[in-house]
Amino acid sequence: MAIIPAATDLTRPYWDAARNGKLVIQRCNSCANHWHPPLPGCPHCHSTDIGWQQVSGTGSVYTYTVVRHATHAALAGHIPYVIAIVELTEGPRIVTGITGCDPRDVRAGMEVRVRFEAVTDDVTLPYFEPA
Questions:
Q1: What are the backbone angles phi and psi of residue 78, rounded to the nearest 5°?
Q2: Is the peptide bond before 80 cis (omega within 30 degrees of 0)?
Q3: In the chain, pLDDT over 90 holds for what percent of residues?
Q4: Rounded to an integer, what distance in angstroms lies between the CA atom of residue 66 and that of residue 47?
Q5: In Å, how far from its chain's centre is CA 13?
Q6: Does 1 have pLDDT greater than 90?
Q7: What is the pLDDT of residues 40-96, one digit of tens each?
């Protein structure tokens, strides 16, 4: 169940890491804050001295919704599915899908871990499942 994202120069390190089974987020080398989604500069101190940091891939469901009506034809065969905001252990939040459980079992605060699903030879998507 995937709508394939297109990598850009800004996001390519994220997608390359995912293809290798790693979850990375940006980190500021000036103020040490980190964030997601990728940005060209630090949203905290505005430095452009930024890099990428591998994170644990663990976190908890911050909020979620169970989608029962396909919003795109590519998702029609996957109803119902869960779209969630997961708060990573390291702090930033990421929009993702929750898999590996019945949508009725998903709850705010539920501990989750990342898993990767290759959807093409070039694109691997991070999803989260119950920890």
A1: -120, 10
A2: yes
A3: 85
A4: 38
A5: 14
A6: no
A7: 999 999 999 999 999 999 999 999 999 999 888 888 888 999 999 999 999 999 999
**Model's pTM, two decimal places?**
0.91
Across 1-131, the runs of DSSP E, i.e. the strands, are 24-28, 34-35, 50-54, 58-67, 81-88, 93-98, 111-118, 124-130
Token pair in block for residue 62: 């911050």
Least confident of 15-29, 30-44, 68-82, 96-110: 68-82
d(CA 123, CA 131) in angstroms, rounded, equals: 24
Q: Is 20 exposed, middle or buried (0-12, 13-18, 19+ CB in 10 A)?
A: exposed
Residue-wise DSSP of 11-26? THHHHHHHHTT--EEE
Give dist(CA 53, CA 14) in Å, integer: 10
- Lookup: tokens for 35: 């964030």
25, 54 Cβ separation under 8 angstroms: no
